[in-house]
Design a protein that fits this description.
The structure is a single chain. The protein has 223 residues and is α/β, with parallel strands linked by helices. It has a single domain, classed as Glycerol-3-phosphate (1)-acyltransferase (3-Layer(aba) Sandwich). The protein is 39% helix and 14% strand. It contains 7 helices and 8 strands. The strands form 2 sheets. The chain has a 6-stranded mixed β-sheet, with helices on both faces. A two-stranded parallel ribbon has the order 4-5. α1 packs across α2 and α5 packs parallel to α6. The two termini are 28 Å apart.
Length: 223
Amino acid sequence: MSTAFYMAARGIVRLPVRLFWKPRVRGLENIPEDGAFLVASNHLANVDSFLIPVVLPRQVSFVSKDDFWHKPGPIGRIQKFFFEQVGAVPVDREALSSGKGALQAGLEILRSGKGFAIYPEGTRSKDGMLHPGKQGAAWLALESGAPVIPVGVTGTPQLFAKGARKRGVVTVDVGAPIELDDIDPSLSKGSRRRLMTARIMDEIQALSGQRRSDVPLPDVDEG
C-alpha cells in the first residue's frame, strides 16, 4: 500500500477514533521524521494494532495472521480491507509461530526506510501484566540499525469489554529512542540481544506502568 493512500485512509479513520475513544497520546515528537524506526510496544488488546498506526505521525506496519485475509463473505472482505488500511502484513500461522516470518517481513520494511512495529512479548497479555520479552525486537535493531522507539498502551482492553459501563482512559505513550550504543559490541550477538531486550522491556514498563510477570507468553495468540 502506498504511503499516500495509507495517510489518506488514516486521516478518515482518525476523526472517529478521536471522537469515540478519545485517546491521550504523548511523545509523538520521538518518532523520527524520516528513515527507518522500530516501535516496540506492550500488547493488551487486538485493537492495539489498529490504534498505534492511527495515532502515529508516520506509517508503521505490523504483521498479522493471514487468516484475516482469507475469510469468506462480506465480513471477510471488510476485515481484509481493515487490516490493509492499517498497514498490516499477512504472514501464515506456521511462519508466525516460528517467529521467522514476522522478523523477515519486519526486516524488509525497516531496510526500505519505513516504520515497523513489534510486540516483544510475542502476543497480547490477557492478564494485563507485562510478560518477558522475546529477542525479536533486539534482533531487528541489530540487523537493521533502526532506532527502537518504546510505546506503552493502556486502557484498550476496556474499549470492547462486555458489560463495561465506562470505557476508561486510553493512552498511547511514545518514549524517546532507546540508547543501546553503550552495550559492549565485543559480546556475542546472543548476549547483546538479551541485554537489549531487557532494556527494551524496562522502557515499555516505565511507559505502561504494568506489573511484571516472569511467565513468557506463547508466540501466537490462539484466542
